[in-house]
Amino acid sequence: MYKKYFKRLLDFTIAFFALLVFSPVFIIVTIGLYFANNGKPFFFQARPGLNEKIFNIIKFKTMNDKKDINGNLLSDAERLTRIGAFVRKTSLDEIPQLINVLKGDMSLIGPRPLLPQYLSLYNHIQKRRHEVRPGITGWAQVNGRNAISWTKKFELDVWYVDNLSFMTDLKVFLMTFKKVFKSEGISQEGQATMEAFNGSN
């Protein structure tokens, strides 16, 4: 009952009121990133969701589009703006995804939506992460986020799929506040974010 009905109702209700509460922060961050990124405070990117259905995720744009002399984008670390670093450290970049939750593309809690090009690289067990809606936060995020390996992250995602319940979601919800407060696991060591997934051995 929770997985099929109550989770979606809870997602919509919490996302709606959260957007109202965070609307002042949303507006201030949008203005700051507008000036930092030459009029582009948001970015939209295709991601696979429930049953691998593609949707456009909405996030605050924390990196600019600066390129080298050959026209190639600079590294993530070089393009991360000062305000973008703050937004990412405080996890404020996740706020626009509440709109995705309202639309039904995402859940508040679930495996993080990754890139479409990773779909062909998953093994049959890792693919199971798409049996539920992707989330703004999830079991892998509160157990390491970007500081753990891809293999471990997918193991945690599948564990969540097999153990989805109200109590599991409540535990993730409460643990998320602790992680955000401590700014833990935001990036891999030596990386601004997380290295690309190149498939499992």
From TrEMBL:
Residue ranges occupied by any Bacterial sugar transferase domain in the UniProt entry: 7-182
Gene Ontology molecular function: transferase activity
Keyword Membrane: yes
TM regions (residue ranges): 12-36
Keyword list, A-Z: Membrane, Transferase, Transmembrane, Transmembrane helix
Matches recorded under InterPro entries: Bact_transf
Pfam families the record matches: Bac_transf
Family: Belongs to the bacterial sugar transferase family.
The protein's name: Sugar transferase involved in LPS biosynthesis (Colanic, teichoic acid)
Provenance organism: Chryseobacterium taihuense
Lineage: Bacteria, Pseudomonadati, Bacteroidota, Flavobacteriia, Flavobacteriales
